[in-house]
């Protein structure tokens, strides 16, 4: 899939292509439509790097109690 953003709109947003992809990925992640791995694919980074991008924009990793319990069992 290819997304086409009108140059005028992009200029008004003050975002370059990389930043726009980051914002898109963060929005989808916060809506729980994608996970960190998919966010990394959208932004061209690893999952860990995508988590860094979340922090850059003041966002937090989606991590619930069930995931914590699973991680603790796997330790």
Automatic annotation (TrEMBL):
InterPro entries according to UniProt: UPF0175
Please give the superkingdom of this protein's source. Bacteria
Q: What is this protein called?
A: Putative HTH domain antitoxin
From which source organism is this entry?
Microbulbifer rhizosphaerae
């Amino acid at each position: 899939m290819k997304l086409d953003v009108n140059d005028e709109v992009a200029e008004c947003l003050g975002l370059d292509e990389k930043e726009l992809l980051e914002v898109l990925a963060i929005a989808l992640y916060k809506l729980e439509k994608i996970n960190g791995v998919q966010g990394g694919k959208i932004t061209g980074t690893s999952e860990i790097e995508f988590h860094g991008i979340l922090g850059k924009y003041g966002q937090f990793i989606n991590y619930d109690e069930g995931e914590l319990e699973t991680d603790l069992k796997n330790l």
